Amino acid sequence: MLYKLPQQKLLRWIALFLIGTFLQFLFYIPTPVLSQNSNSCSNITTPLTSEEQTYARGAWQYFVKNYQPATGFTNSTGGYPSGTLWDMGNYLMALNTARWLNLTDQADFDSRLNKFLTTLSSLKLFEDALPNKVYNAATAQMVDYGNNPLERGIGWSALDVGRILAAFDVIRTCHPQYNDWLKGIIAKWQVARSLKDGQLYGATVLPDNKTLLVQEGRLGYEEYGARGYQLWGFSAPKAIALEPFKLVEINGVQIPVDSRDFQSTNANNYVVSESYILDGIEFGLQGELADFAARVLDVQKRRFDTTGQLTAVTEDNIDQAPYFLYNTVYANGTNWATITDTNQPYPQFRSLSTKAAFGWRYLFPDNAYAQKVFDAVKDLRSPDDSGYYAGIYEESKQPNKALTGNTNGLILEILYYKARGNHPLIASASTSVSTSKPSENASSATPSNQPNSPGKPSENASPTTPVNQPNSPVTTPIATSKPTEVAVAPIPPVDSPQSSSNLKLDRSLTPVERRYAEAAWRYFQANYHAKNGLIDDRSDFKGATLWGLGDYLAALHAARSLDTITPKEFDQRTRHLLGALTKLPLFAGELPSRSYDTRSLQPVDYGGNPVPEGNGWSALDLGRMLAALYNLKSCHPEYTVAVDKIVLDWSYLRVVREGILSSATVTKEEEGRYLTRVNPEIRLGYEEYAARAFQLWGFNLDRSAVGGEYQTASVEGLKVPIQRHRTDTNSKVNQYTVSNPFVLYALEFGLDPKMRSLFEPIFQAQAERYRRTGTLTASATTLIDRKPYTVHSTITGQGEAWVALGDDGQPVPKGRLVSTAVAFAYNALLPDNKYSQQLQEGTTDLYNPLIGFYEGFYETTGKTAVGFTSSTNSMILQSLLYNVTNRQPLIRPITTTNSLWWQTVAKGNSGRGLPNSATQQTKLTSDSSGSYWVSDSEKTHLVTGTK
């Protein structure tokens, strides 16, 4: 019995300890902590210039002079001791920036943050739930917007909560020792009360003193606020889903506008710059938001182009009544509205915003207009060193001398973003699209927008079987480390680059066309592998096919011809690409494999999985590359020797057989053996295009070149071709008709009578569908960023008109797209046709100035289809070049036959399957319909039969 007393005491002490621990957690009284550096946040990869350091010091001075030592808060505006949760978030972002840019030392940082969090922890909350909308910065009392103390408060703002939650995430990431303190603060807040039905809800006090919950946020800010909630595990799916919105045309740009306007909801649906800037620097602009941001910047540039008035609009304090205005692109049915929160207009006080100009400048560092507005405000600091003024009034041209934490905090945050190499500040965000290449593909996507493009691997990481390849194997991805980026040396310098003498421009690009050319070329800048000279076929996949590299070479030629790039850049990129082509492993020592990893240069399958021995070759891809290489020799003959050496390394014994193009596939037997099978190519349009390209090099492909008998189907009363009638194969794969190969053929080779008879009903059926239904139609194969990843928006497919098909041949409901590339091409080929003009108008603004043109938009919703490819942007550049060459075929003839290629062909007995004679099998001719390439010997006539 003696042992029980100490045991009881022990149990009592344990119980007291547990109770004390529980009470400590319940009331959470944090103790001050000292900061410890976080390597990721201190990693300054792009140090500020001396000028930028001046900007940062000037902005930080606002917070030095407006600091309230009793609370640790700062004034929202100069000398006015008031602040919202949004203002507090601004200050935390500014304080973090000041530390990493060495504007303050560690001791001062810790002192400020400890005081701030101590006060924040003890704030009186509205209805004991969430922070009041506004507090007195000097006393931490709840006040109204006039800074009058109120015992109850005036409600809470869900958007402001989202803002400070985003700032909390940056603090806990960069200073993790504060994480528990921040979690304790949030634990005291009833965050769930600000969420309802997947949306953000604020609280306001009615005249009868009742609390009313109101939905908060419109397009831009709503998504930003919801992202802040997400960082701490609070979900608001409707708030982050963009809808409901519509597109409103302003100055020729389709601007996304929230459908919930003031008239219907008593809340403004303003479109301003700041929400997109915040999203960009903190989370990284991606997908549709990246597109929206680019549009919002572009429309402001166009206003400047039209009026001469520099424009960078967003909400700002002003230095006179009514003291706060929303300078908008659009609000409540009015373009360029300047309004109060009650929708009262004040157009006389519209201003150029300092923070907006800074934001656009660093989000779009290569944008000339962003630089122009930035130059107007970069030195707009107060003479007494109290920070940056809010902006410049448009009407009076005088400074708006309001000094605010919002302006100066955002400037600091932007400069920190720049110093981090344009990497978003939120740790979970991906690399910003403004300066960085797309993220490395962990699971591969479809490699290219071309006839061999399979679907993206499924979610269980098992890639789909390429439908275009009979008996293609389904392989399982191999767990490998990230491939090392292989360095490849360019070929040695060639003779002095010559002008494109064979390509005569009829006129210069218009300013609008030049903008499109620059946007399309951006794809090839954003997806360039500087170590080896290759380009990714699509922005979300580190892989390339020979078709995609042919697209790139064609784009290089177009960009140089249009003066979009300099002769030096053209030469460097061309020599680098040619150097890479010499290093690509050949399948069976014969021809380039179907696809390669653009980092390792090793063969991969269409799922991105390594296949060391290769996976066959594509005659169609080879044709695309041969066309581009031929034109390089024609228009830039200084590269002739290098090009000929590359193509003479290849063997054509099995790709050209009895006048037919054939491709190789690899299958795996049950016993584990790999077997190569070679079969004729039969894909409508693509076969004809590739055959014409082979003919340029002297190959006899009379049975694959355009001609012979074609089966047709009746679509919109027109006989649309569906396949070539042939007896050499029974294959029925990919029986669908799309525009892509036909418009590419027309741009490069012109429309000979036989091709014209196929091309015209394909175009006319799409125009007739539009006339009948009002649905814009530009049917093509396009690649998107979601299932099924590859969409064939057909004219006819598998016996059905206007069906959208995946690569597995299954219908894709509501999946039809209007192709940007095809719309550009039709407009170039048929500039006087009213329907092609309407197509052009519907797609010209479908681009992100940083990463190129999108694939298109969905027919049913009008929403942009997110996806960026070399094929689309190459075709747009080629279409623009076609516009200014008097509608001449882009591929120009080579008049001499004394090059290394023809000399080798003439010798015969090469063992490589070279042509039998040293003469081209196609020639450029002209008649009343225009110029076009035609087979050297035309003996067959086009015959069509209705299926």
Molecular structure report:
By secondary structure, the protein is α+β, with helices and mostly antiparallel strands. Strands 5, 6, 7 and 8 form a four-stranded antiparallel β-sheet that branches. A three-stranded antiparallel β-sheet has the order 11-12-15, with no helix packed on it. A three-stranded antiparallel β-sheet has the order 16-17-18. Strand 9 (245-250) and strand 10 form a beta hairpin. The longest helix has 24 residues, at 4-27. The radius of gyration is 32 Å and the shape is elongated.
Main beta sheet: 4 strands, antiparallel
Number of H- or I-type helical stretches: 26
Question: How many β-strands, per DSSP?
Answer: 41
Roughly how much helix do the residues carry, as a percent range? 25-40%
Instruction: Tell me the overall shape.
Output: elongated
Rounded average pLDDT: 86
Beta-strand level of the residues, as a percent range? 15-25%
N-to-C terminal Cα separation, in Å? 103 Å
As residue ranges, the low-confidence spans are 1-38, 428-480, 939-947
Could you state the oligomeric state of the chains shown? Answer: single chain
Q: SS-based structural class? A: alpha+beta
Radius of gyration: 32 Å
Write the layout of secondary structure elements.
Elements: H1 4-27, H2 39-42, H3 50-65, E1 82-84, H4 85-100, H5 106-121, E2 125-126, E3 130-131, E4 134-136, E5 155-156, H6 158-174, H7 179-188, E6 195-196, E7 199-205, E8 211-215, H8 221-231, E9 245-250, E10 253-258, H9 262-265, H10 274-282, H11 287-307, E11 315-317, E12 324-327, E13 330-331, E14 334-335, E15 338-339, E16 351-353, H12 354-363, H13 368-377, E17 389-393, E18 399-403, H14 405-419, H15 511-526, E19 543-544, H16 546-561, H17 567-581, E20 586-587, E21 591-592, E22 596-597, H18 619-635, H19 640-648, E23 656-657, E24 660-668, E25 674-680, H20 686-696, E26 709-715, E27 718-724, E28 736-737, H21 740-749, H22 753-773, E29 781-783, E30 790-793, E31 796-797, E32 800-801, E33 804-805, E34 817-819, H23 820-829, H24 834-843, E35 847-848, E36 852-853, E37 856-858, E38 864-865, H25 870-883, H26 900-907, E39 922-927, E40 930-935, E41 943-946
Parallel strand pairs: 26-41
Antiparallel strand pairs: 1-4, 2-3, 5-7, 6-7, 7-8, 9-10, 11-12, 12-15, 13-14, 16-17, 17-18, 19-22, 20-21, 23-24, 24-25, 26-27, 28-31, 29-30, 30-33, 31-32, 34-37, 35-36, 37-38, 39-40
Helix pairs in contact: 3-14, 4-5, 4-6, 4-14, 6-8, 10-11, 10-12, 12-13, 12-14, 15-25, 16-17, 16-18, 16-25, 18-20, 20-21, 21-23, 23-24, 23-25
